[in-house]
Amino acid sequence: MTEPRVKTSIWAAALIRRAEVNGASAFVVKKGDPDSGVVLVKVSLLNGTARVWSATYGRDGQRRWVKATGVDVVADAEAEDYIARARKRDSDLWVVEVEDRAGRDFLTEEKE
After folding, report:
1. Residue 75: DSSP 8-state
2. What is the CATH classification number for the domain harbouring 46?
3. Which of 50, 60, 71, 92 has the most CB atoms at less than 10 Å from its CB?
4. Residue 105 resides in a domain
5. What percent of the chain shows pLDDT beyond 70?
6. How far is 57 from 73, CA to CA, in rounded Å?
């Protein structure tokens, strides 16, 4: 059985808060559908490189994150190009940017 999904607007606000509490900056670059828009998360390392994460759902209904721009970080311009292409395909797309020199993404919470 899958768990109910949190509205995208609430999820994005929680990601931003989690980043800020941990000393990073985060903000919404593009708002999409507030209830169920797909999310891309750009993590900028503030040195001209970035990584883009894309959400997908597993068979168990749980959100999974994949490195949309590949295993390694890419030039910031390449990350922006990826996001621009995705926005053309999906007008309800959310884009959240995290700025963190260490490259932390804050997409999953540590389990104790």
Report:
1. E
2. 3.40.1530.20
3. 50
4. no
5. 93
6. 23
Does residue 107 belong to any structural domain of this protein?
A: no
For residue 40 the two structure tokens come to 């891309």
Q: Domain containing 16: what range?
A: 8-99
Average pLDDT of the chain, as a whole number: 91
- pLDDT bucket at 3, cuts 50 / 70 / 90: low
Rounded distance between C-alpha atoms, residue 96 and residue 37, angstroms: 12
Residue 80: enclosing H or E segment and its boundaries? helix 76-89
C-alpha 37, offset from chain centre? 12
Bridge partner residues of 109 (DSSP):
none
pLDDT of amino acid 59? 86
Neighbours of 75 (CB within 10 A): 12
Structure tokens at 71: 């295993």
Q: Indicate the pLDDT class of residue 1, thresholds 50, 70 and 90.
A: very low
The count of structural domains within the chain is: 1
- The residues that bridge with 39 in the sheet, in sequence order, are 94
pLDDT digits (tens, 9 = 90+) for 41-57: 999 999 999 999 998 88
